[in-house]
Amino acid sequence: MREEERVVMNVVDAELAEMMSAVFAAHREQHQLGEGIAELWGRLGELGLVRLTGSEESGGSGAGWAEAVELLRAAASHGVKIPLAEHDLLACWLLETAGLGVDDARRTACLLDDAGVARGVPWAADSARVVLLWRDGTGYRVTDAATASLAVTAGHNNAGEPRDEVRADLAALTGNSVPDNVVGQFTQRAALVRAVQVCAALDRILELSVAHVRERTQFGRPLAKFQAVQNLVADIAAESALARAATDGALAEALRSDWSSPYLDFFVAVARSCVGHATSVVVRNGHQVHGAIGTTVEHRLHEFTMPALSWRSEYGSVAHWDEVLTDHATAAGADGLWALVTATGT
Question: HSE on the CB side for 90, CA within 13 Å?
Answer without folding.
Answer: 32
